[in-house]
Amino acid sequence: MKGGYYVRKIIVSPQHLDRAVLEIWFDRAYRPTRKVVEGGELVPIKEWE
Fold first, then answer.
1. What are phi and psi of 32, to 5 degrees?
2. CB 18 within 8 A of CB 31
3. Please, are residues 12 and 18 in contact by the beta-carbon 8 Å criterion?
4. Is the pLDDT score of 4 beyond 90?
5. What are 10-23's pLDDT values in tens digits?
6. What is the pLDDT averaged over residues 24-46?
7. DSSP code of residue 28
8. pLDDT at residue 1 above 70?
9. CA atoms of 44 and 49, how far apart (whole Å)
10. DSSP conformation class of 47
11. In the predicted model, is pLDDT for residue 49 greater than 90?
């Protein structure tokens, strides 16, 4: 990756203690270039209820 940003977040379900790992790579303009979820599913914001 040439410049940009990277975020890795571990998410734990408070009810079941299930764990997921979210990784997102961004370019220098903060636009996501790659997204990976392990142990879960990435749901678009417009589908949240």
1. -60, 135
2. no
3. yes
4. yes
5. 999 999 899 999 99
6. 94
7. T
8. no
9. 11
10. G
11. no
